[in-house]
Prior knowledge:
Blueprint: H1 13-22, H2 26-39, H3 44-50, H4 55-68, H5 87-99, H6 103-106, H7 113-124, H8 130-139, H9 156-162
Amino acid sequence: MPRTVEIEPTHTPWQLRRLAASSNNANQSRRLLSIAAVLDGMSRSEAAKIGGMDRQTLRDWVHRFNAHGPAGLKDNRRRGNPRRLSVAQQAELAQLVETGPDRTADGVVRWRRVDLQRVIEERFGVAYHERTIGKLLKALGFSHISARPRHPKQDGEVIQAFKKTSPARSLPTSQA
């Protein structure tokens, strides 16, 4: 039969219950109450049920409690993966997106995520998925909405001449 893990008596059951009552973390409170129940002499199976876990899970939390105290009973939230581009590279990418593509060099009139994916891989040697490019752009402060591109040979005077100008349907009446 496996041997039970002893709980180091750094706190009394009463102190653990007080910590559980004052904690803002519900999971930590459940774990503290389970450990306090074990210290009061309750069986490990029953104490685990109090905390909504099985006996093996309670055993794992006892190890964490012995190593780190009550603070070790909080959940460890991961912060996610670090960015693969450095801060300088991100600034360079933001500048590149802000200025827009060069039609002769880049071969496009506006940036799409697939185009930026290719440019990032060529310049920085980092391969991103197309969806991740969108997340990266959002983190850099860009929106997915872009201005409509203009044709390089577009003439403003021709556009103004083409616009319809309707005559006034009724003239304002002058009041005497």
